[in-house]
Amino acid sequence: MDGQDVKPRKDLLDQTWDFFASVRVTTVLLFLLAVASIGGTLIEQEGMYASNLPPEEYYPQRYGPVLGMLLLRTGMTHAYSSWWYLTLLFLIAAALVICSIERLVPLWRAVYRPNPTPDKEFVRRLRQGFTFPARGEQPLAELAAALRARRYLVIERDGRLYADKGRLGRLGPYITHIGLLFIMIGAGMRAVPGVYLEQYIWVRDGEIVKVPGSDFYVESLGFAVEFYETGQPRSYQTHTRVIDAGGNVVKTETIAMNEPLTVGRVQLYQSSYYAEYGHAEVALVDRQSGAEIDRFTLDLSQPQRAYTVGDYRLQLLAYYPDFTVGEDGRPTTRSSQVNNPGLVLEVTPPDGEPFTTWFFPLYPGMEFDDTTPVRFLTQDVSPVYTSGLQVKKDLGLPVIYLGLIITTAGAFATFYLAHRRFWAFAEGGQVIVGGWTNRNAGSFEREMRQIAHQLDPERYATESDMEGEER
């Protein structure tokens, strides 16, 4: 309309700045981050669940086929390293920086470049203040000395006085912002390859496994477990050997519960285990006479392709670690774990034709053909343990700890350091003093009364009147 001022339209950069400078926007972003963090805490993250199943198999089994696939597709199974979580961290960091710049610059000027000579009416209108007689050629000298004794910074200019202390208390929220930025930087570093790692490795007794995120290997020299009378495990540990890329043994150490193995920046925690059938002591027996021909040891996890037992030769034709019969009627295995091993063997006698037979180490009496000249008898089955070790590496953790220290310092400054200020000038034979504080007004009033009593004891309360009061 004519005669009315039209505000110029802000460009995109100014609009973006104003958007992130809004406290409401920052609050919403923090709420979304809190919700995402709670979800990541409640949902088992990849590399942290105690199972050797891959994520695409584990989550549908754990949460159901629909919800499990939804969690995988949305990235909730690795929430803290997902693109949307890192985007939230970036937006909050931007909001904190812009909010701090928007408010810190004028606050810094007001606190560290104060006006020692404001309008006299401003000093008179302050809620807290007192007067005392002006004495000598320098009427403000006594007040300045009393304030310096209480560790105030005193500025005298043009016959006026300004004093303050506790400036850091005004900057407490912004120190907290800096600490939060460090925490978010440390958390965001997890997206950088090689900085963060948390996953399981499964190491069988006697097995050597490459430790992800490192240049060394770990070998299990043996797993040990102790049980309560109820059968529940009481404690378990893995005796390990660390081997570098050149094959040299770096250290030999036992990993127990709450006693991790540390190599450089990588830590290995004893987290889980499972036991399966390991080795079977098997006897080859003459079916007609019942005499034992010889024995051999069968590795149920990785059986050999051929064995020599006495004068007999055995050839492994097929192995099913978890034997079952499929829907098509053919033999198959349910899983790769040794739960119900079944073997198809070709047996070559010393002076006869080879023949094929089945052997079930856990159920040696189950035979498909009882006309063979020999049969197998299981004498003993020993277990083998697979230790679940959790590998942790977090190079951003020192940055997060630094952020926590800075945040704590900022919170302390915010809540426990009060910014106290005095203004004074001489007029009409009196020194007029006014004071202001940003918090804890009661304590500031007591301090002002003490200063007033020191400068004019006849007019203001005596020291004995204030005994027992907190300074």
TrEMBL record:
Any single GO BP term: cytochrome complex assembly
Membrane topology listed for this record: Multi-pass membrane protein
Keywords: Cytochrome c-type biogenesis, Membrane, Transmembrane, Transmembrane helix
Domain ResB-like: 23-448
Locations listed in the record: Membrane
Transmembrane residue ranges: 21-43, 83-105, 171-189, 399-418
Gene Ontology cellular-component annotations: membrane
InterPro entries: Cyt_c_bgen_Ccs1/CcsB/ResB, ResB-like_domain
Pfam family, one: ResB
Subcellular location, principal: membrane
Database matches in PANTHER family: CYTOCHROME C BIOGENESIS PROTEIN CCS1, CHLOROPLASTIC
Protein name per UniProt: Cytochrome C biogenesis protein
